[in-house]
Amino acid sequence: MIKIINVSKNKMLKFESSNWIQITPKTYFDTPQIEIEFKNGFNFFQHSKKCGKCNSFLEKFTGVDQSNWLLKYNNKYFLINTQLKNENGAYISKIKHTISFFEYGTKIILSLIEINETRLYQLEMNSVQLEDYESACLYRDAVKELKSLIVKYN
After folding, report:
1. What are phi and psi of 139, to 5 degrees?
2. Which of 2, 41, 106, 134 is at 20 to 30 A from 54, Cα to Cα?
3. What is the mean pLDDT of the chain?
4. pTM: predicted TM-score of the whole model, two decimal places
């Protein structure tokens, strides 16, 4: 089971593997990722029009939402990074329609940064040195949110 949490918006999504949801962790990559695939014709975009939590999460991908979304998997916390690009310039984190074996669905691919207080502090200081103050603020805020998460969801 994975939980996707936004502390500042008080939103949480839970996903558990089933016959129509496949969760594939790829935490062994240089840039850890997790894939969530919805099968049986599930359209996340349509669903998010009716579901406030999912719509709020979808806003992270459109740039409307600048707050931190965190993922809990295997008792570890990860910061979801929707701005990271691969060597070809394409975003790693994305939501897309899928077609396989004559059925369609939706696949969410999330780029992750494993976090703890020390790691977030290092990322914040690196961002300050690079004069990337927007990222520095996101990492600073993530430390506060991580502390809240540990108390609330453990």
Report:
1. -65, -40
2. 134
3. 84
4. 0.77
